[in-house]
Amino acid sequence: MKRVVLISMLSAGSLALGACAKKAPEELPPPPVDTSVPTSTPTPTPTGPIPGTQAHFENAVNGQNVIYFDTDQYNVDTVDAGALQTQAQYLMQYSNVNATIQGHTDERGTRDYNLALGERRANSAKNYLVGLGVPAARLQTVSYGKEQPVATGSNAQAWAQNRRAATIVIN
Question: In the predicted model, is pLDDT for residue 6 greater than 80?
Fold first, then answer.
């Protein structure tokens, strides 16, 4: 009797082990795909002007780095206000950039009068920028009076081009 029980147990054990046996798959899985990230990716070389330069500033403000004034005037009109708002946005974005605002006049008037008018124009532009939130410590002014004209000639068109305040990035 013991022999029959032993044979039955061995048979049951063999069947149980046989049921757990794995068959080799018909088809092998695909080889693993290399998903590793390259260790050094080449840094793209920046193109165009470098932020903080005069060229970058002029591109960013669409060439509106100069505002123009009427004869003997130094008030900021609505057109100039738009240009100065664009300049202020740039200067607020790049907080490490400082600027000088140059005041200019046309050739008419005495040297002293033109230096004083150029200073008022530069300060008018500076005060507008400060009013928009640009720290005053980052802005300097200088008056050139009639000493650095952009247009030569003694006519209304040349005078209009020379009555200006130009924002120049310094750093």
Answer: no
